[in-house]
Amino acid sequence: MGDVVTTLRPILERLGPNPTPDQILDLKICDPAMGSGAFLVAVCRFLAELLVKAWHAHKCLPSIPPDEDEILHARRIVAQRCLYGVDKNPMAVDLAKLSLWLATLAKDHPFTFLDHALRHGDSLVGLSKKQIEAFHWKPERQRDFARALIRDRLAPVLANRNEIREAPDATPEPLLSERLHSADGFLDPIRRYGDLVISALFAGANDRQRKEKLEDIATTTAEQLKHFDIERHRRLEAAVHSLRGDRSTHEIPLPKPDHPVIPFHWEIEFPEVFDREDPGFDSFVGNPPFLGGLRVSNSLGMEYFAYLTSTFQEAGHVCDLVAYFFRRCFDLLRDRGSLGLVATNSIAQGDTREGGLGWICENQGTIYSATRRLRWPGRASVVVSLLHIWRGRWSGPLYLDGKAVPRITAFLFTKGGDRSPARLAGMNELFSQGINIRGPGFLFGDGEATSLEEMDNLIRREPAARERILPYSGGEEINQSPVFSPQRYVIYLSDIKTEAELSSFPGLTQIVIQKVKPERDSLGSNPNNIPLKRRWWAYHAERRDFYDLIRAKDKVLVCCQTSKYLSFALLPTTWIFSLKTVIIALNSNAAFASMQSRVNLEWADFLGSSMKDDPVYTPSDCFETFPLPKEFESNQTLESAGRAYNEFRSDLMIRNNEGLTKTYNRFHAPDERSSDILRLRELHAEMDRAVLDAYGWIDLKPTCEFLLDYEEDEDEDETGGTRRRKKPWRYRWPDDFRDEVLARLLELNRQRAEEERLSGAGAEKSRAPSKKRKSTRRALLPKNEPELPGFH
Question: How far apart are CA 776 and CA 535, in angstroms?
């Protein structure tokens, strides 16, 4: 209830200190992914209490039926007049109705009529009234063949819906259903026009194909309006069925699409919301579904992904689904409207922030209240953010994590701007994600597709295979092994261009044919899969220029992309690193100090994303933007501090037989008092001091404390009692100090980006990609063959 109150509070303040019943009942509140209807029930109860107070304050208490009390009567009226909801799951729509029925149940009255307000459809996919009238997703491209028809039909739709909303409490349900059926009868052809336009958007692989498809559909529709033809009718029905999957004919059975979409055209579905002065909803509430940006295309289809990225400008390719819900809700708000939505903590991170809160804050949106990290009730390790946003000019107080602040940025931060820091010239060439081998059949190891014993036997039979089997390191080795030692090996044939050349390595080729090729052959028609199917022996999209660069070095900085603690290690360039790692082409202790210091760790935590509550190091956001200290490679103080820390940490891990995760678990534990960990903390502080000095920030005096990253609620145990979950302690800088460092880094990033712009470096980088270096045949192969455990 508290979250709903925070959402509706500024709306009620807009109505004044003593709102009338009519003002309250004119409010229109929506949940765009209503699920079971829990948020709508909370809104219903809250507004009903206000409505009862308004009845008494204005001395206009209506006649209360004998089977109802004032609160129940108010709930029934609020539910019918103020509440709206949409969900792509029809079962969820029914469940939400049931929840509101239970909240408004009266003994001698029928269930509250809700069919007009709780609707089935995809909240993110749909057109505005202007777009439908123009028969184009770009409404400036006008087609007038249906404009008058659409406008004539919307008038009776609005009239019937208003009769439903304003019907007395005792109105028979069949009468209300008849009015809704009449409204939907007028609305169905308009919906169909919108669906036809959307079907063209989903039918093409590129913009040209989509425009051609729309032109064909528009021509067919215009001809059909002049003269009905059964074949044209079938073609149009087939176009809609290809989108929705629910309109196959008996004469021509049509296959159901892999990812059916039921569009929801908000402005025509709820015309009373948008055909009023200052159109739009007063508020949105809810808990939109979460789906990571990288999973959108696989789970919902490439066409759906293309639709989202083309419809919502500035939403990047790894923008989480929740950001699109924020954008959709903000677009549908009236001026001086509010939204209060639950999001994962990725909402303020990376592409999700850029395409969601970043865009909103730059388009008249103000975050007036935010809780950044809150454990969601239940057993899943889910950390959420609660955000409240106002559309239009805001003059009230702002609250971040319950504290009054002067500003809340798109980063959910009190200082700095809403835009992401600039990517700095030259940094892109210094990092790469690890290699996506795209097939576990390439691997040798315990529990892998091929055992180490079989690998040994193969090398005895074919000595030439040895140079094509390389150590393979992933997150487990980096985080858990005291010496980072790979326990797996991988077949490397990616630089071989043709299938005929594989004959030089018959044993390895046979393994790949048996254990990799079948999986590749089964891949779908996604464009990314075509080269994988054609060159089934090769890895996926490796960066040849980057690996040419690191071959000249003996070691590079490597970290796990997702781990409990972001930690860097200097590891050999003769290894293959998995997709779950990030490789940085720096090999000095000064570079290690700069990256392992809290200056960079806080920057990465600030700009990176997360998986559950583990940080995800996204190098394009975290490294490419990071303003390293100038001339850090020649800074001997940094070199010494980095060497001392790295050597002590390595020795400590070997002595204790503990990897990075266990070592840093102890590092951050408040009750850890061993002399070794105390010394590691001292060395980390010395390394931080050296890095701050390298920036010239000698005025900053850092201290560390054991702090909680977020407060936790009590959790139910298996007996129904409560228990405290383990608290995530961190030995870190206090928030105020961290914020000061981050603010200086943001400003330094801005200065360097401006310097690059003035010198032309940034423009040159954006205009012309660096020339590809000539690939060497064995770019990933070791300069000197290492002694591999298990080889004889």
Answer: 18
